[in-house]
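Job type: complex structure
Entries:
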Amino acid sequence: MKFWEVTLNLLEGFGTTCSIFAATLILALPLGLLIAFGSMSRFRPLRYVCRTVVWIIRGTPLMLQIIAIFYGPPLLFGISGFDRVPAVIVAFAINYACYFSEIYRGGIESVPRGQMEAGQVLGMKKGQIFRHIILIQVIKRIVPPMSNEIITLVKDTSLARVISVAEIIMEAQEYTRQGLIWPIFYTGAFYLIFVGALTLLFRYLEKRLAYIKV
Amino acid sequence: MEFLRVEGFRKSFSGKEVLKGIDFSLEQGQILAIIGSSGSGKTTLLRCLNFLETPDEGRIFLGGELLSDATCKYSERELRAKRLKFGLVFQNFNLFPHYRALKNVTLAADLLAKERARAQKKEAVAAGCKRSRAAAEAKEFYRSLLAENRRRAEVLLERVSLSDKAESYPFELSGGQQQRVAIARALALEPEILCFDEPTSALDPELTGEVLKAIRALKGRTMIIVTHEMAFARDVADRVLFMADGVVEESGTPEEVFGNPQKGKTKAFLRHREEMI
Ligand SMILES: Nc1ncnc2c1ncn2[C@@H]1O[C@H](COP(=O)(O)OP(=O)(O)OP(=O)(O)O)[C@@H](O)[C@H]1O
Ligand SMILES: [Mg+2]
């Protein structure tokens, strides 16, 4: 009886975990691309701003960023800031966008210049070159590092509990406080299954892209 | 009748002058071989002709008309149109690794076809045609253009003796085969002038022959070939241009430049080349 009750409670927490995960990806994947373009821009101020932001975000703990985004606005400006879940999602999205941007940048810069030039001499437009020549080669190169980051994100979601967002670990800790130890270990199974499914997905993607030899 | 005239090309990279005023002209259907030692600016010259670099100064005349003037600023659109006058075959092929040989050849033409079909649809709608009908007609038009592109690409691949490799990816091809695909690709949009930048220097010696043969088979087109293959240049070219330190040191017919060079630098270069062989 207890097992099912715990399972249901943990599932609820895991739902929150998954929402944070999904919302972060949806926001950070495109935002990261914007930051990547910004940090490669020929317009110097933009480049510096982007690179500084990336430095700050990658140079400080994500936990600190969550706290700053949740408590920062009310403390600094006396305004009511984000609710808990949105605060977590904003912090995660910015943090992961910065990591993604560096992966994108590495991927884009690793495509030989000659690829773009080959498109140019064939009279292709910049957008056409990006969409038909560069993009798929970038994707091919970034799938392995991106899968790493995304798997890390699954586990990083547990940081949300620093501002009392009831994700799965926090739900389990509720039981620990009541003297019930096993639920906290039980959470591991949820993560393992989720990460296992992601691993299969990424492996499939890598296989689908294997025909591109770069 | 001169077909191409290049006038006063100058180009510096961070203060170092790489092209110091290049002038030459070429008749329609002629082949120009450009020779010269490493660092003399041959690649830079071809890149300027193909609008991959903008020269600091200089003009290009094509068919008696001004095509470009380095001091004018051209829009992306104008630049694209000008680029299509020239084709370029790169030293290291630069094939698109994710497309099969045939698609490498048709890609640019297919994209142009898409633009044309879109323009046609827009025009039809503007002229009062029903949207669905205009769309259907544009789709039909696009299909016919694609079929035409494919047919022409097949012909081009056949001309470089690669009909059987149309469905191969670049990594499945030898260097010589890749370079021949690259030649077919450069021909797909019918450039007025086809440029080659040392087309065989990234190849194993036993593969250079097939590529040179493919180039030879294009005789009749206006071509500019930068090459270290002196025998090939002598044999295939109508004009030879010897570059040294960013200037045209000597130019003339192959007999003149190879048989009776006038300048000391030319003589030294050719002597050095012979010693290497
Ligand atoms: N993008 C660039 N930035 C700075 N310097 C450059 C650039 N491109 C070329 N150069 C310099 O210009 C000079 C001429 O280069 P170029 O590649 O045109 O010579 P080349 O005649 O093609 O030589 P090679 O026979 O070795 O191919 C070289 O000294 C080179 O270092
Ligand atoms: Mg060169």
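Summary: Chain A has one domain: 2-112+144-208. Chain A is about 80% helix and 0% strand.
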